[in-house]
Amino acid sequence: MTVLPAALAEIRDDFLSFSEKDRLQLLLEFSNELPALPERYREHPELLERVEECQSPVYLFVEVSPEGRVDVHATAPAEAPTTRGFASILAQGLSGLDSAAVLAVPDDFPLQLGLTAAVSPLRLNGMSGMLWRIKRQVGEKSAA
Amino acid sequence: MTVAFDPSEKFQAYAHPERLVSTAWLEAHLGAPGLIVVESDEDVLLYETGHIPGAVKVDWHTELNDPVVRDYVDGAGFARLMSAKGIARDATVVIYGDRSNWWASYALWVFTLFGHADVRLLDGGRDRWVAEGRPLTTEAPSPTPVDYPVVKRDDSGVRAFKEDVLDHVGKPLIDVRSLEEYTGERTHMPSYPQEGALRGGHIPTAASVPWSRAANDDGTFRSAGELTAIYRVEAGIDDADDVITYCRIGERSSHTWFVLAHLLGVPRVRNYDGSWTEWGSAVRVPIAVGAEPGSAPGR
Question: How many domains does chain A have?
Answer without folding.
Answer: 1
